[in-house]
Amino acid sequence: MSLREIYEEFELENLSPYAAKSACSKGRKNIHEKCAIRTEYQRDRDKIIHSKALRRLMHKTQVFISPEGDHYRTRLTHTLEVAQISRTIARALRLNEDLTEAIALGHDLGHTPFGHTGEEALDNIWPEGFQHNEQSVRICEVLEKNCEGLNLTLEVLDGILNHRGAGSPATLEGKIVQISDKIGYINHDIDDAERAGQLKEEELPKEITDILGKSTVDRIDFLVKDVILSSLDKNEIFMSAHVKTAMYNLRQYMYDTVYRSQLQMKERRKIARILEELYEHYRADEKRLPGEYYRLILKGESIDRAALDYVACMTDRYAMNQYNKLFLPDSWAVY
């Protein structure tokens, strides 16, 4: 019996009856030989960890665009924090930690440069609409590994696709990531907003902090415990009704005071212009696209789609550098 089979048997005997078991995975679109050491979900986690898309997240905005400081979150640190919160909940509920971690690590791979502001800009550009969760799946299925894709299991792809908004993940592990994403970004964005001087802890609505806690650490601890206690031995991931209401009210407060603040709105037009002009530049001539994106055209994709993918995959600083290089005059001097 291989190490993989031993661990698959361990899952069948020890995980919750509601957990997704590696041995029962629906598999991958392209069948390949199973690993002798790792389960299918462990293998997916490793594929995502070694992907270029994950590495790019270190230079993509979480909330604050081009922040001056070493301690603001990026899309990568957000991803790692969501993975940690998700694994804590999954372990407590005896669900599949490996599947949970793989979904968490992959859930934001498709985020654009400049965070949600960049996503809105590309959504306005692309006639079919642009959503980062769909782009995350496209990266995993099409763009990674020089347009070969990562060939992930269907459970991981489902969790990535359905992590946002009204999505309904097919597994409890996917639902854990969906709720952990909100727990993570709401509270960590408060921490960053305080660091940026945009708000103070004591300014948060008292009716909310009286329920959730009066610090970032306390709120995350409280929310994680509430999810665990509410969901224990159930075939669903719950949060207490009054706690859920308080968390969403806190989220709305962040939209009103930070996400849609004058500071953020002032930068929105600049970001839209950068991404629109980059997109128009690359869709005008396929020879301007790098090899891996030109390969999409050779495989039958439109130049518009290839240009969109290229711009969407850019980091903040790469997008600004390309814009400066293409549209602003070089410095010069007479000697």
Short key terms for the protein model shown above:
Hypothetical protein af1432, 0% strand, mainly alpha, 16 helices, 335 residues
Supply the number of helical segments.
Answer: 16
Kindly report how far apart the N and C termini lie: 75 Å
What is the number of domains? 1
> What share of the residues does DSSP label as strand, in percent?
under 5%
- C-alpha geometry: flat
CATH superfamily: Hypothetical protein af1432
On the 0 to 100 scale, the average pLDDT is 93
List low-pLDDT spans. none
**Can you summarize the main beta sheet?**
none
Structure class: mainly alpha
Strand tally is 0
Radius of gyration: 21 Å
Which architecture would the CATH scheme give at its second level?
Orthogonal Bundle
CATH class: Mainly Alpha
H-E order: HHHHHHHHHHHHHHHH
CATH topology: Hypothetical protein af1432
Helix content percent band = 55-70%
Describe the structure.
The protein has one domain: Hypothetical protein af1432. Helix content is 62%, strand content 0%. The protein has helices spanning 3-14, 40-49, 52-56, 75-92, 97-106, 115-125, 132-147, 154-161, 172-195, 206-212, 216-231, 241-259, 262-283, 291-298, 303-313, 316-327. Helix 4 runs antiparallel to helix 5 and helix 9 (172-195) packs antiparallel against helix 11.
Question: How are the SSEs ordered, and which strands pair?
Answer:
Layout: H1 3-14, H2 40-49, H3 52-56, H4 75-92, H5 97-106, H6 115-125, H7 132-147, H8 154-161, H9 172-195, H10 206-212, H11 216-231, H12 241-259, H13 262-283, H14 291-298, H15 303-313, H16 316-327
Helix pairs in contact: 2-5, 4-5, 4-9, 4-11, 5-8, 5-9, 6-13, 8-9, 9-11, 9-12, 10-12, 13-15, 13-16, 14-15
